[in-house]
Amino acid sequence: MNVYTFSGHLGRPAELRYTQSGTAVLSFAVPVKSGYGDKEKTTWVDCAMFGKRAEGKLVDYLKKGTPVVVSGEASLETFEKRDKTMGAKISVRVNDVTLMGRANVDESQEPYQADSQGGQPAGENAPAGSGDLDDEIPF
């Protein structure tokens, strides 16, 4: 099983495009930091979500700087650069995206989580009685 889960802040706004066959593709990039101190490095991960999940409201929430946790199938793609040297990049076919905050998002929008079942913004399909849990916590 190939599952890659990582977190970071979006490096650019998400972009919704369509293939020639009409399939929606939502793409975005997330820089992932590893190491520490002077050994710290950043790896950019290109992410793509396909189909009906890509057509939802998620594009409205994925703005530059938005903190996310992404999970999906990773692959390493090689390519030839303009200077004729070889390059490589990590690409992820996204299964799940969880927003971790409200950076650069309109305050009137609700939190959003898109999952492999085509998630909806939180609150739209919430079960009755699942409101503010803070009222039920005794401390």
What attributes does this structure have?
139 residues; mainly beta; 2 helices
CATH architecture: Beta Barrel
CATH superfamily: Nucleic acid-binding proteins
The SS-based structural class is mainly beta
Oligomer: single chain
Number of β-strand runs: 7
Over all CA atoms, what is the radius of gyration? 17 Å
Give the secondary structure arrangement, pairings included.
Blueprint: E1 4-9, E2 15-18, E3 24-34, E4 41-50, H1 52-55, H2 58-61, E5 67-80, E6 86-99, E7 113-114
Parallel strand pairs: 4-6
Antiparallel strand pairs: 1-5, 2-3, 3-4, 5-6, 6-7
Give a written overview of the molecule.
The chain has 139 residues and is mainly beta. It is built from two helices and seven strands, in the order E-E-E-E-H-H-E-E-E. Strands 1, 2, 3, 4, 5, 6 and 7 form a seven-stranded mixed sheet that branches. 19% of the residues are buried. About 14% of the residues have low confidence.
Task: Offer a concise description of the structure.
The chain has 139 residues and is mainly beta. The chain has 2 helices and 7 strands, in the order ββββααβββ.
